[in-house]
Amino acid sequence: MDTPVPRPSVWAPEWRTLTIGLVVTITLAASEALAVATVLPLVARDLHGISLYGWVTSAFFLGTLVGLVVAGEQVDRHGPAGPFAAGIVVFAAGLLVSGLAPAMWVVVVGRALQGLGAGAIPAVAYASIGRRIPNELRPRVFALLSTAWVVPGLVGPAVAAGVAAAAGWRAVFLGLVPLVAVAGALSFRALRTIGPPEEPLVAASRLVPALLVAAGAGLGLAALAERSWLAVPLGVAAILVAARPLTRLVPAGTLTAKPGLPATILARGLLTFAFFGADTFVPLAVVSVRHRSTAVAGIALTAATVSWTAASWVQERIVRRTNARQLVGGGLVIVAAGIAGSALVLDSRMPIAVAAIAWAVGGFGIGLAYSTLSLVVLREAPPGQEGTATSALQLLDNLGVAVGAGIGGAAVAIAVSHGHEALGIRIAYAVSAAVALLGVVVARRLPGYPLS
Fold this sequence. Notes:
The protein is an all-alpha fold. The protein has one domain: MFS general substrate transporter like domains (Growth Hormone, Chain: A), CATH 1.20.1250.20. It contains 17 helices and no strands. Helix 1 (13-46) runs parallel beside helix 6 and helix 11 (261-279) packs parallel to helix 14. The longest helix has 34 residues, at 13-46. It is globular, with a radius of gyration of 21 Å. The two termini are 28 Å apart.
């Protein structure tokens, strides 16, 4: 009788240190993201900066766009430890700037610095998984990374709301700095064991194109927020500055949804646009439109985080008998349904509990699709270029968030100036839902093979 071969585990000695390091790193990122999202309405109110509300999120992700391109490039040349350490230092500096900010525009600058540093995290994580973790274990690793959001999701918003109530919103930013130092030190030890690929990347630097794309996106968002004739030249400048450099940072055919890797990367951008273009304004809807506390807003964010994680484990279980087209397309439909439910909360007659229920639905949708797209990219990436391929994925990922939050922020700013804040949020939700449905169409061009 043959002895059954034990199934490999991510906790085996050869992968345990890396797995723990990645989980710690993502836990740090999750804690920061949820804490800031919870207190952001208070920041805008205290600094009289509602007109820059969307920019706080957009600046972070535009900074991340640059950081992940630079980090992915350096990972493919020198290994992950150095880029990660540099990213952690810049991230901590951004927390200090935001926490000490005397005006909303300074918070925007601090968030851009945080994003620049945070860009190293996905570039390092994806490249490390691609080089060290066997293909059959990758779905479980991505499910574990999603699980790293559970504890921050359960307690992060409540803790952030409590800290803000007791010591002010600045304490939320500044209190994260020592946690960054501890988590960074733990993760750095694991990453030092991974060197550069056998054939290091020798292509030209992509820093300048990344900076131009970020600048162009910023100009485009400024054009959307501008209520004068300046909007036209700003919009034209955005296209001229960003269009050509963007094509150098993503695989050929990405912007036309060429089947395979290009369509996968475009689908990720549409997914994050749809989800985070709405997610940015869920707390604002609860606090400013429905006049509830930040703790209540945090419950909606927690619900989405937990359902995202649950969906990631569902995806890990069924990925062997389905394909990316089904998982991503279905996930985007569910995200659109969650956005539609969130829009109902803007009606004062709707029970506030609907905010948590609806956004839990949205979280489940992105949980099905997000890790699926990561698996496809790692499968399709050329050997030794995992950092470059995944940085292209993360570039569209973060560009989607920045543009989604920016368009929504522009709608809210214009609506607030006319005394109709709820209308601005409705427009943000409508645009995000439309992008989710466009993503369903693009998902039909993803690979049709099983992912594990």
